[in-house]
Amino acid sequence: MSIKVRYFASLKERVGHADAELLLPEPLSASQIWQQLNPDLAMPEGVLVAVNMEYAGLDTLVKDNDELAFFPPVTGG
What pLDDT band is residue 76 in, cutting at 50, 70 and 90? Predict the structure, then answer.
């Protein structure tokens, strides 16, 4: 199973790249994928997740050919 992972804004700088391809034997949650790709880097609080361009939760299972995106928390004022 193959998925594409994308990081945006400050997360891209934090992990050191914008994109990653990941081969997995089974679906994993978005948070499990973060941990697998970034074992030495805790996920920042408030990170937003999208699967196939739709907002999703950290517990959402990512499946074959999905695109997973991580966004830093949005603030405004």
Answer: low
Which pair of structure tokens corresponds to residue 44?
A: 């920042």
Q: Which two tokens stand for residue 76?
A: 């405004």
For the domain covering 2-71, report its CATH number.
3.10.20.30
CB 42 within 8 A of CB 68: no
CB atoms within 10 A of CB 20: 15
**pLDDT, tens digit (0-9, with 9 covering 90-100), for 27-47:** 999 999 999 999 999 999 999
Query: How far apart (Å, rounded) are the C-alpha atoms in residues 31 and 11?
Result: 14
pTM for this model (two decimals): 0.92
CA angle centred on 21, ends 2 and 55, rounded to 5°: 80
Q: What does the block give as tokens for 70?
A: 């991580």
